[in-house]
Amino acid sequence: MAVQLRTAEYLDALEAFDTHLRVEKGASPHTRRAYRGDVVSLLAGLEAAAGGEEDGLPLGEVESGNLREWVLGLTRGGASPATVARRTAAVRRFFAFCHRTGRIPADPALRLRSPKKPRRLPRVLQQDQADAVLSTAAEAAGSTGRTRPDHTAPDRTAPDRLAAPTAPAEDRTALAGEPAVPAGEQTALTGDRTARACAQHGPACREPGAGEPAALRARAEALRDAAIVELLYATGVRVSELVGIDRADVDGTARLITVRGKGGKVRRVPFGLPAEKALAAWTEHGRPVFVTASSADALFLGVRGGRMDVRQVRRVVHRATAAVPGSPELSPHGMRHSAATHMVENGADIRQVQEYLGHAALSSTQIYTHVSMGRLAEVYGRAHPRA
């Protein structure tokens, strides 16, 4: 049940803070929701401490001792160090905003400290496991398989297969008068032939599993899933960035994608030949099967034609990693961790990896050096006779 604040001053400051995050900082709805929840946790505590008073303690009278007591209460209540650190960071930002905008005379959170959270190394795939995961996904899609891992230099002489996007759904009706395609041949349809099949089926083609052979839709889904795991590993993008990609964001000639990261920051990320082939197979042979009038230009579509969301991509990655015996079952962020770790292991400069991942601070990227060294220590412990 959501906490309802009753103090007018708190509500006004909270709304102004949310507007600041949205307009000035370009924060995503998810980030704003998280900050809001963390600040409400404190403000509700201040109201509760006021006892029978109608309003909570005025913001201008909040002292550092009140905030330290709140942090202590979180810890006593069983909150993890990571949760306490996150909520403390949100509260510091909130009071800094209130002080800067003249709502309070001094910032009581200026010296607020949270307990150090333990630094846990992320779970990642070994390089051979990553190749197995991607090869298995490619085989499930019926493709020719991967030619080489994405951390090698891409072949820039390969022809561009992403330059010509498939026809939008509204253009397909012009194909409706063409000869019907025999049912036995429909499983082999690709590109324009898939579009013709959709035009012939009419509205039924817009419903998942209706008017089309199940095998055609299953193959389209497999092509999509293979392209998703390839692109996640090839680019190291966040899952939120992946689901926001449009076809126009893909430069097949230069093998670059444009993604919008945290705070609305835009960056261009390269991808290799295996990802280029997987994307081409999906956009040419799979995407037309799912396209509807509401698909717009989204690169990755769900079976009902809408843009895929984060939960759907998470299920795709879970299935792909679980299909390879011995590999850890990862989330999309695990693929990002794996890509960065493998780049460091293969000699990439840490600042290049920082740019590749879109990290604002180098300290966020340095964890992959620790992962690489941790794995070296494991190998040393197993293999060296004097370990």
Task: Give an overview in words.
This protein has 387 residues and is mostly helical. Helices cover 51% and strands 3% of the residues. It has 14 helices and 3 strands. The chain has a 3-stranded antiparallel beta sheet, with no helix packed on it. Strand 2 (256-260) and strand 3 form a beta hairpin. Helix 2 crosses helix 4, helix 6 runs parallel beside helix 9 (273-290) and helix 7 runs antiparallel to helix 9 (273-290). The longest helix has 22 residues, at 214-235.
SSE order in H/E notation? Answer: HHHHHHHHEEEHHHHHH
Poorly predicted ranges: 144-211
Number of strands: 3
Structural class estimated from helices and strands: mainly alpha
Report the mean per-residue pLDDT as an integer. Answer: 80
Q: So what's the overall shape? A: globular
Cα Rg: 26 Å
Strand content: under 5%
Helix content: 40-55%
- In whole angstroms, how far apart are the ends? 54 Å
Oligomeric state as shown:
single chain
How many DSSP helices? Answer: 14
Task: Characterize the main sheet.
Answer: 3 strands, antiparallel
Strand order of the largest sheet: 1-2-3
